[in-house]
Input
Amino acid sequence: MSSFKMISIIGFGALVFALLSSFFTVDQTQQALVLQFGEPKRLINKPGLNFKVPFVQEVTFFDKRVLSAVSKDSEEVILKDQKRLEVDTYSRFKIIDPLLFYQTVRNEFGARQRLESIVDSSVRRVFGKFELTDILSDARTKIVDDISEEVNSSIKKLGMEIIDVRIRRADYPKSTSQNIFNRMKSEREQEAKEFRAEGAEEAQKIRADAEKQKVVLVAESKRKAEGLRGDGDALAIKIYSDAFGQDKKFFKFYRSMLAYENTFSDENTTMILSPDSDFFSYFGKQKGN
Output
């Protein structure tokens, strides 16, 4: 193959390559910036096939869709009442001016770094205007709105627009959380001791009252029992008296028989009495001496 043909083939290949590299496609989710030696020359917002000067111009694509940025580290903020919180945020943004975006932050990586710094600064400033009770109330919505407005005013200079800023988490720092936990634990233990003391005191009162009622009931029962027993004894005596009063001789005889029974029931009993004693009056005859 002659050198002329070789040169012709190489030239034709270079021409084809140049023609192919002269065209590029912009997707409907993208916008493109044509650069010539690093200098912006043309902005393309509409999707379709486009032309650029080969080997001289290059194309940088930017996403039209909503992008997200998440804070890598929690930001410690000091509230108006000097309370400290660790706050995690995430934000969503959109590239609205590719030329300005390229001139200020170059790419999405640089944009996220700048945005994170701006959001963190705004979070510190806005949270510093509120107290802890405000954050736990409906004022939280206002806090988010204030942060979004402040961040938006800053990043418009970077060719971006904030769509949304959200607080993922707002907690006490670990050291503060541990102190709060210890304090709450001590308070609960103190309350438990007070409840136990009050319970023991109430139990003692109940036991004392029950013991008092027991003593009163027992005494009252004994009094009633003694009264009933006395009434029964009195009635028995009256009955015996009425019965024995009808026959005095029989009563004397019956009493003697009871005395004999009680005296002689024990075989070891020894009595030293005169034979003509009244005690033996019924031994000789039924009617006595």
Remarks:
- The CA atoms of residues 126 and 147 lie 6 Å apart.
- Residues 174-245 form the longest helix (72 residues).
